[in-house]
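User: Could you walk me through two proteins back to back? I'd like the raw sequence and the C-alpha cells for each, with a short line separating them so I can tell where one ends and the next begins.

Assistant: Of course. Protein one, sequence then structure:
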Amino acid sequence: MSKIVEERKRPLLLLLLNKVDVGELIEVEKTLKGKNFDSLDVLLQTPGGSADRAFQIAKILGERAKHITIIIPLFAKSAGTLISLIGDSFVLTELSELGPLDTQVNETQDDDLPKYKSALEEFKALEQARIHCLETLDQTALLVLKKSGMKISSSLSLAIDFVGKTSSKLYDKFDSIKIGKYARALAIGREYGVRLLERYKGKTSEEARNIVDHLVYDYPSHTFVIDKTELESLGFVVESLPEELLNLLVENRMLLLKETNSLIKLYSPQDEPKSIKTSKSKKKNSTR
C-alpha cells in the first residue's frame, strides 16, 4: 500500500471486505469522516454482500472524493461491483474481475444453512419458456399452412390454440409470487446502480440505465467474469500502472486471499516520510 501511495502521490483506501455489511459500512464512514480528496485510490477486494450497504459505501466515497480510481487486484464481485460504479477509472491485473449485478436471494428452508441463488435464474427460465412458445407457434403455423393449404389467418389461429394448450403446463411450473419477489430483488441493484451513475458520474438517465441493465440482465450467471475488455466495452476507463507497482499487486494477491477479516485503512502520502524517518531513526539507535 505504501509503495502505491508513494508512487502515485495520492491517498489510498484499502477496502478488503470479507463481506459487505453494516460493520464494514460503519468502519468506512469512521475512517473517512471529515476528510475530502481531490483524488483517491481505492484498493477493493470483496466477494460481495449487501447491496444496501454497498450503495451507502459508494455514496460515502462519492461525497468524499472528486476523482476515484478503483484498484482491483483480484475480484470485486456482486455488491463489490456496485461499489465499483463510483469509480472514474479502474486499475486491473490480468486476473482481475468484476461480476454481474443480479441480486442474490436467500432460499434457506427452515433450519438449513444459508442458500443463495441469483434472482435472475427464474427470469432466465421464464425467458426460455417464452422463446420456446414463440418458436413452437411459428413452426406449427408454417406446418399447418403447408399441409392444409389454409389461409395464413386460419393456420395462425389453429397454431395459437395448439400452443396455448400444450404450453400451459410449462407456465404452471412458475410461481408468480416468487417471480414478483425476484423482480423486486433485481430492481434493488438496478436502481442503486443507476442512482450512483446519475448522481456522481454525470450520466444521463438513459446512459445509466443502459449500463446497469447490461450488468443486471445480460450475463448468463452470477459468477460470470467481467474483465478489462468487458469493462471498457461498457464505457469505463481502465488505467495502466507502472510495471513495478503492477507486479507488486500480482505478487501479493495471495496475501489478500488469506486474510479472513475485513481490513479498512486509509494511507496518506504525507504519512510516508514520517514513517520512513522513524524507521531509520530506530535502526540507527539499535546500531549504536
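----
Protein two, same layout:
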Amino acid sequence: MEYSKLTDKEKALLDSLRDAIVVIDTEAAKEAAQKIIDAQIDPRVALKHSIAEAAELVGAKFDCGELFLPHLVMVGDLMEEVGTILEKDIPPDQIQKKKVIVIATVQGDMHSIGKNIVSTMLRSSGFIIHDMGVDVPSTAIIQKAKEVKAEMIALSSLLTTTMPYQKEVIDDLVSMRLRDQFKVMVGGGPVTRQYAESIGADGYGKDAIEALEEAKRLLL
C-alpha cells in the first residue's frame, strides 16, 4: 500500500504517530502505532513516513534550540519502541536492513559532546550506531568497522592537531585495501568541507543536522 493511496483517516493516523513522537508522548505514540496495525495499514508506510518525518522535525527543533541532547535520546528510545511494534507485523525478509555506522573521536582528541550529539541524531533516525568514544586509534576504528560490518565510519576532530588522524584512517583503509568497503564521513569544529574533500572523505557534516543528511545521502 502506497501513501498516496491511503484515505484521509489513515493518513491522520500516520500524522498522529509522527506528532506523538515529536512531543515525546510515549503512550500516545505506542497507541497510534497499534491503531495503524489494527487499521491494516502497511507498517512499512508508517516507518517511512511517520518516523522519518518525526526525525526531520525533531532535528529541526534541535537545530533551532527548541530541543536539547536529552530530548534526542528520549526520541531515539521512543522510535525504537514504536519501530518494534510496527515491525512485528512485517515479514522478516521484508524488513529493511538498518545501516551500521561506527563513530569515534580520533586519536589524541578527548572532545565528546559534538560526537555524542551526532551519534544520538543518527540513532534516532534508524541507524545502528557503534560509538567508540574519544581518543581512538585509527587501527581500532577500522577493526571495529570490520567486526560489526559497518557501512560507514564517522570521524570527529575538535582540534587542528588531531585532524590528520582523520586522514590517517582513510590512508590506512587504502593501504589495507578496504577503502571501498566503507563510506567515511568527517566533522568537527575546525574541519571544513574543503578539508574533507582534500583527504578523500565521502561526506562532511558541519553539525549534527548536516551529518544526518550526509549519512542519509550516502547510505539510504
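The first strand starts at residue 100 and ends at 105.

Let me know if you want the two compared in more detail.
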